[in-house]
Each structure stands twice: as structure tokens, then as C-alpha cells.
């Protein structure tokens, strides 16, 4: 279904607002309003079409309910990861570790909207996850939504390379905010991120490292910090079989 944007004038203020027609929470009560008609936005880069680069869209095991009336199992069951580890394709190979990497990325940018992820079918089960649809990122710089880190805090696993990179970016001489600030200087749309958003990256990075440290205290370093590439022990499934299991 092609999304449509519907515009209307706010009745409580002289603002122009819009909302979209979509599959999820797209209603007038969740409209985005300008001040009076200007607002911050994001740009999206589109991948090649599915006929050129076929890919699968897979529900995130830690997706949100998008409902006021119910909650997902991971939100009420602290041992939810144990069941995820028993299910294909998370019971073998690197998929679960890649999901945890993705949750760290989402926490750093404040993205709560990771309901699906995608993989290119050409590379099979061990293909990297595509971090599509990050438009909900960098919203509230003052709020750190810890539930985004549920895959990390519940599974207590992290790639060694990921941890080493996070530790490097936490050092004063290679701080994440400084690296991002320097990188964005070259962007035609600079500054792209406000200073408060850049500083939020450093604050959130420290919280990620504290979650890892709590896991290490509970289970030990050898159980928490894993090697980067785990050879699959389960026979890979075809794209058709993966769709049937979704």
C-alpha cells in the first residue's frame, strides 16, 4: 500500500499539521504540526527495487505492540530471550548477535520503531541486517528509552568487536559525539544534528556500557562477550521456508 499524507489546519493553534494513511498508528491524534508551517524532517535513501535486489522483511522479535490495550511478551517476561534462542534463525549463527547490535544502534539514536528488519536473500541466513527506516531516530534528545536495549539486557550477549568499538568511542580522545560532529561537517545539510543530540550520543553510550557491565557481573565475561562470527549449526532455510515460519 502506498502511504498518503493528509494535511489539515490545527483547531487549537495556527499550525499546519499532517498525518499519514498507513498500517500502523496513523491518526489525527498523532499528527505532526509545524510552527506554524515549518518543522524538522528526515531524508530517506531508497534501496534498489525488489526485482534487482530481492530481500525479506522479517518481524523483529522485540517489536512493540503499537496498541494501548496490550503488551508484547518481551515487555512482561524478563526471560523472553530464552525462548528466542530456541527459535530459528536465532538458535544458530549470528542473527541474534546482529539483532543485539541493531538494538544498540537504535538506542543510541533513540529509535523505538524497529518493528521489522530486512536481509538480502542472495546472502542467505548469514547476511547482514539492513538498518532501514530510521526516521523515528533523534527525536527527544533528553529522553533515553532503556526498553530499546531489551535484546542486550535480556540476552546478555555482545560481539567482542562491538564492545571494543563502543569502548573506543567512550574514550575522551575519540568520543562518539566528536567523531559524529567531525563527520557531519562534510555534509551539505550540516549541521544535521543539534549539539544536544550529539551530547545525547555520549550519554547513551555510557548507559550501553553499564548494561554490559551488569551482564558481566551476573554471568561472567566469557558468557557475555562472544566472538564475532559463529558458524551456523542449523541447516539454512530457503526464502520460501523462512516466509512459512514467520
From TrEMBL:
Entry keyword annotation includes Amino-acid biosynthesis: no
Residues forming the FAM20 C-terminal domain are 9-225
Q: Where is the signal peptide?
A: none
> Any idea which UniProt keywords this protein has?
Disulfide bond, Glycoprotein, Golgi apparatus
Superkingdom of origin: Eukaryota
Is Zinc there in the keyword field?
Answer: no
Q: What is its main location?
A: Golgi
What InterPro entries has UniProt attached to this entry? FAM20, FAM20_C
Q: Where in the cell is it found?
A: Golgi apparatus
User: Known PANTHER family for this protein?
Assistant: DENTIN MATRIX PROTEIN 4 PROTEIN FAM20, PSEUDOKINASE FAM20A
**Family, per entry:** Belongs to the FAM20 family.
Tell me the protein's name.
Pseudokinase fam20a
Amino acid at each position: 500500500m502506498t502511504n498518503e499524507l493528509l494535511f489539515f489546519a490545527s483547531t487549537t493553534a495556527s499550525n499546519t499539521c499532517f498525518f499519514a494513511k498507513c498500517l500502523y498508528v496513523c491518526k489525527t491524534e498523532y499528527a505532526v504540526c509545524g510552527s506554524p508551517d515549518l518543522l524538522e524532517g528526515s531524508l530517506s535513501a531508497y534501496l534498489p527495487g525488489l526485482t534487482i535486489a530481492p530481500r525479506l522483511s522479517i518481524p523483529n522479535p522485540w517489536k512493540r505492540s503499537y496498541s494501548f490495550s496490550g503488551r508484547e511478551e518481551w515487555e512482561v517476561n524478563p526471560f523472553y530471550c530464552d525462548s528466542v534462542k530456541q527459535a530459528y534463525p536465532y538458535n544458530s549463527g549470528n542473527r541474534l548477535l546482529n539483532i543485539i547490535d541493531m538494538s544498540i544502534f537504535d538506542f543510541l539514536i533513540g529509535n523505538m520503531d524497529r518493528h521489522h528488519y530486512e536481509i538480502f536473500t542472495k546472502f542467505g541466513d548469514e547476511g547482514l541486517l539492513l538498518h532501514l527506516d530510521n526516521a523515528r531516530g533523534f527525536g527527544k534528545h533528553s529522553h533515553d528509552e532503556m526498553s530499546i536495549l531489551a535484546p542486550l539486557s535480556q540476552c546478555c550477549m555482545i560481539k567482542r568487536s562491538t564492545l571494543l568499538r563502543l569502548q573506543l568511542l567512550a574514550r575522551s580522545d575519540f568520543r562518539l559525539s566528536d567523531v559524529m560532529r567531525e563527520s557531519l561537517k562534510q555534509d551539505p545539510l550540516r549541521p544535521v544534528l543539534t549539539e544536544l543530540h550529539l551530547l545525547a550520543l555520549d550519554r547513551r553510550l555510557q548507559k550501553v556500557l553499564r548494561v554490559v557491565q551488569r551482564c558481566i557481573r551476573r554471568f561472567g565475561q566469557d558468557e557475555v562477550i562472544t566472538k564475532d562470527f559463529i558458524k551456523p549449526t542449523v541447516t539454512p532455510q530457503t526464502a520460501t521456508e523462512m516466509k512459512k515460519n514467520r
